[in-house]
Amino acid sequence: MIVDALVWLVTITNASMPTTFALFERSYTYWNGLLLLAFLALALLWARRRSVLDLWLMVVMCGLLIELCLIFLVGRRYVVGWYASRVFFLISSTLVLAILLSETAFLYARLARSVMAESREREARLMTMDVLSASIAHEMNQPLASIVTNVDAAARWMGRPAPDLGEVRASLAQIRNSAYRARDLIGSIRAMVKRDGRNRTPLDLNELVREVLALTERELQRSRISVELRLHEQLQPVKAHRIQLQQVLINLITNAIEAMRETKQPRVLMVRSALQEPNRVLISVADSGPGIDPGIVDRIFNPLFTTKSNGMGMGLAICRSIIEGHEGRLWASPGAQGGAAFEFALPADVA
Ligand SMILES: Nc1ncnc2c1ncn2[C@@H]1O[C@H](COP(=O)(O)OP(=O)(O)OP(=O)(O)O)[C@@H](O)[C@H]1O
Ligand SMILES: [Mg+2]
């Protein structure tokens, strides 16, 4: 508008400038045609306006229309101001277009980013649900299997001509413990998936090892596995979630039992605890099974990786997630007895 006003001013006052648009002076048809075209373009743009670019084109068309009218009514002379206004119009409209386009690109980029973030969040939620359900299915197996074994044992003791009530009572106590364990496991799995640091208490890992060996005693006996314990007596405590570390040890011991199932040589489970510098506590679970195939060693910790027909491939993934959630490290190495050794190190609770 300012430019148009200036054009009008310069055109009307500058009588010495050569007249132009001689062609138009002769005939109104050109002017009418030109005006009609401009109006048509404006109407079309208005009808199909969809983007910022359309709005910008409409502004340009309006400017052009006003100028055409001014030149027709007032001037019809080429003056410096006319050229200046053309250049100014070109620069300013390009600038406006550039700003509008960059603004639109910025908005689209923001929209794309937020859509992507939302889909990532959704995927993460689904992943969490997958991991959660797979973990529950995996971890519930142990207490449920223990309950079934103890129910069978109690039934056998009861079915004898002279029922051994002491053994029945022991089996019932085991069943109760397993049921409590199943209940605690749900909370522990939820804490693991949410990386919830609450419920961590100073733990004596030697005591935990003994506890887990007691929990898996029947299974070890049934598989004719002897246990060799080498516990460091002055072990520092670690600050950890008790049930979660129990799960780690149970999963490692279950894997060792399963690995030694086909072994002909003596089946030995060696559990060792040690102090590692600086301020780290190490636990090692080693077996005398066939060891880990070197071809799969870097995949065994992946969720759902298994070489067993009835395995879920979740055991080691859960163990690693728990240990890393406690700022520790879990790794596999060839065992001293020829089998596999799984070791984890956790920071000692020095405070
Ligand atoms: N002590 C071991 N000796 C040899 N191979 C092992 C041992 N522990 C684990 N593996 C290998 O690592 C793989 C993954 O173990 P992981 O515990 O994650 O799953 P899984 O035991 O197959 O199934 P599940 O989910 O029921 O535990 C196993 O299938 C096995 O091939
Ligand atoms: Mg396993």
The percentage helix is: 55-70%
Mean pLDDT: 85
Q: Secondary-structure element sequence?
A: HHHHHHEHHEEHEEHEE
Major sheet description: 5 strands, mixed
CATH superfamily of one domain: Histidine kinase-like ATPase, C-terminal domain
Point out poorly predicted stretches.
Answer: none
Q: CA-to-CA gap between the ends?
A: 75 Å
| Number of beta strands | 7
> Using only CA atoms, what is the Rg?
41 Å
Identify the CATH class of one domain.
Answer: Alpha Beta
Ligand set: adenosine-5'-triphosphate, magnesium ion
The secondary-structure class comes to: alpha+beta
Going across the major beta sheet, what is the strand order?
2-4-5-7-6
The CATH level-2 architecture of one domain is identified as 2-Layer Sandwich
How much of the sequence lies in strands comes to: 5-15%
Molecular structure report:
The chain is an alpha+beta fold and 351 residues long. Among the domains are: 77 residues, no CATH class; 153 residues, Heat Shock Protein 90 (2-Layer Sandwich). Helices cover 61% and strands 12% of the residues. It is built from ten helices and seven strands. The strands form two sheets. A five-stranded mixed sheet has the order 2-4-5-7-6. Strands 1-3 form a two-stranded antiparallel sheet. A hairpin with a 5-residue loop joins strand 6 and strand 7. Helix 1 packs antiparallel against helix 5, helix 5 runs antiparallel to helix 6 and helix 9 packs antiparallel against helix 10. The protein is rod-shaped. 23% of the residues are buried. The mean pLDDT is 85. The site of magnesium ion (MG) has 4 residues, from helix 9.
